[in-house]
Design a protein that fits this description.
The chain has 1 helix and 5 strands; from the N terminus they run βββββα. With about 110 residues, it is α+β, with helices and mostly antiparallel strands. It has a single domain, classed as OB fold (Dihydrolipoamide Acetyltransferase, E2P) (Beta Barrel), CATH 2.40.50. A hairpin with a 7-residue loop joins β4 (about 60-65) and β5 (about 75-85).
Length: about 110
Amino acid sequence: MSENTRQIGGFKTGRVVSNSMQKTVVVEVERLTAHPLYKRTLRRTKRFLAHDEKQECKLGDVVSIRECRPLSRRKRWRVHAILRHGTARPAELEALEKRLKIEGTGS
């Protein structure tokens, strides 16, 4: 490897599950693995704290994160790109539907 090239860290793709902190989002990355004995496909999730400098990420967004130098005790990833804008969380949708049903029957 030449002196001018630098090895780029890893990339991961996941969903934003929290953006309540300043310039930080929690990204949940899901992967499928096979059980060592039974070979059944298992869904494993891991949560990463990622730096979001412009605070553009919203709940439910699918983002690409890349590895970087440590920014804080638990934050070692940066938001590289927003791949797809998400919708509201299921709990918010259920509350909205319930409120609409109540308003519809009340009048």
